[in-house]
Design a protein that fits this description.
It contains 5 helices and 4 strands. With 112 residues, it is of the alpha+beta class. Strand 3 and strand 4 form a beta hairpin. The N and C termini lie far apart (92 Å).
Length: 112
């Protein structure tokens, strides 16, 4: 019988739904990953318990807020494969618009 094992599992394994609720309630919060390896960590924040700052084994994408399980032992390769819906659908036109505006400024033509 694995009664003890299953009870430990229940404590450690929060579902995405409960984590999402706890984030809304403020029981959990997002913190940026410190001393992170891998540039994809720029896109993710670690979900921790607000009081204890204990890891929930979940991370959240800062762009699309998708929760994903993360365990130190598992590694994070699946995170780097995350195809962010926000990133891929975001047009780069916002940058172009900025530059177009800049170019509109009237430059003085050959004052001398
Ligand atoms: Zn994302």
């Amino acid at each position: 019988m694995n009664e003890m094992d299953s009870s430990i599992d229940e404590i450690n394994r929060e579902t995405k739904e409960t984590i999402q609720k706890k984030l809304l309630l403020g029981v959990c919060k997002l913190i940026p990953k410190s001393n992170a390896k891998g540039t994809f960590w720029n896109c993710f924040e670690v979900v921790v318990f607000t009081e204890t700052e204990q890891n929930t084994n979940y991370v959240s994408c800062i762009k699309c807020h998708k929760l994903m399980s993360y365990k130190l032992l598992q590694g994070s390769s699946h995170l780097s494969r995350h195809k962010c819906a926000v990133l891929t659908s975001e047009p780069s036109s916002s940058i172009n618009q900025y530059f177009n505006k800049k170019q509109k400024t009237n430059l003085p033509q050959r004052v001398m």
